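Model: You mentioned two targets. I'll fold them one after the other.
Researcher: Yes, keep them separate.
Model: Target one:
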Amino acid sequence: MTEKKTKTQKSAASGDKETRNYHVSTRADGKWQVKFAGGEKAIKLFDTQAEAIAYAKKLAQNQEGSISIHKKDGKMRKQKY
């Protein structure tokens, strides 16, 4: 019986690190959120976009990832920050 490897296991086996992408966007209630790309739940909520960006930068630096910033209307402001 062969075992299927997950994406993370494959990356670890090949020595490649999977980069994490964090998104900064607004919610219907007006709060700014930081989420994983494709994630359903917010990691953390903020009152301002600047606070959310600062937090996402710290996460991205620690995880060797990147951030994508959305405008209030949901369109991309800056990608791979």
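Model: Target two:
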Amino acid sequence: MRSRYSAYTLRDEVYLLKTWHASTRPPSLSFSDAPQWRGLKVLKLTELTVEFVARYKMNGKAEKIHEKSRFIQESGEWFYLDGELKDS
């Protein structure tokens, strides 16, 4: 999770797509209107999920995403599967 957050801050499309499960992976990512990421707080970890809050600025306004992400392991590697947005 932390490595994917870092990849978003760096706008590293290659890494993000590589770590996204093939069953839910988009064909590409757009960073044209990407926010300025300000921080990540992991709230809860289980074997297959990570609940987190990520703070960012968009058009000068502070915002946050609260998500419960699901991951899957295949051949010893972890992949992002999908996420459920939570009310904060």
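Researcher: Noted. Anything on target two?
Model: The CA atoms of residues 35 and 61 lie 10 Å apart.
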